[in-house]
Specification:
Layout lengths: L16 E10 L2 E9 L11 H16 L8 E6 L5 E7 L4 H17 L20 H16 L11
Antiparallel strand pairs: 1-2, 2-4, 3-4
Helix pairs in contact: 1-2, 1-3, 2-3
Length: 158
C-alpha cells in the first residue's frame, strides 16, 4: 500500500503552526485541508483529551457560524495523535489566507464563558469530558505562535 501524505511529513522537524496538509478536487470543487498543529510532535506532551474535546466543540461552533467562512467549512476536528486539529475548507487556499480566521477562533475560544456548545448528554456522546480552562490555555499558547509566525510555522519542513 502507498503511504498516505500525512505520514510522509517529517514529524521530528515539525513545529507548531498552520499548514496546508492537502488539496483535493471533487468535481469542480477544490477542498483544502489544514493541519492546525498546536504541539510540537514527539517533543512535548500532547493535548489532554478534555481540552482537545472542548477545542473541538468550540472551534467547530465558531467556524460554522463565522459570517465569512461558515458556509465553506467542511470539517473541523482533532487529530488522533492529539497534537492538533484538521480544518477542511472549500476553496484552493493557503495558510496566510486563513491565518486571520484561526487567530479570531483562538481569541473567541480564549474569551468564551458559559456552557460549552454541545456539552449536553443529548448532544454529545462524551459530554462530561471537556475542560474549558485548559482549552483556553491551549488556545492562548497556540495563539502566541501564530501572532508572528515564521516560515517554519506556515510551511511543512522540506
Amino acid at each position: 500500500m502507498e503511504k498516505i501524505a500525512s505520514f510522509q511529513i517529517d514529524h521530528l522537524r515539525l513545529k507548531p503552526g498552520l499548514y496546508v496538509s492537502r488539496k483535493d478536487k471533487f468535481g469542480g470543487m477544490a477542498l483544502t485541508t489544514f493541519d492546525i498543529r498546536l504541539k510540537e510532535p514527539n517533543k512535548e506532551p500532547v493535548i489532554d483529551m478534555p481540552a482537545l474535546h472542548a477545542i473541538e466543540h468550540l472551534g467547530a461552533t465558531f467556524l460554522r457560524n463565522h459570517p465569512q467562512w461558515g458556509e465553506r467549512v467542511v470539517y473541523f476536528g482533532p487529530m488522533g495523535c492529539r497534537t492538533g486539529c484538521y480544518l477542511i475548507l472549500e476553496g484552493d487556499l493557503d495558510s496566510p489566507s486563513i491565518l486571520p480566521l484561526i487567530r479570531e477562533m483562538l481569541d473567541w475560544i480564549g474569551n468564551f464563558n458559559g456552557a460549552i456548545p454541545g456539552s449536553d448528554p443529548a448532544e454529545c456522546g462524551n459530554w462530561q469530558e471537556q475542560n474549558l480552562d485548559m482549552a483556553k490555555w491551549e488556545a492562548a499558547r497556540y495563539g502566541a505562535v501564530l501572532k508572528n509566525p515564521g516560515r517554519e510555522n506556515l510551511h511543512y519542513p522540506e
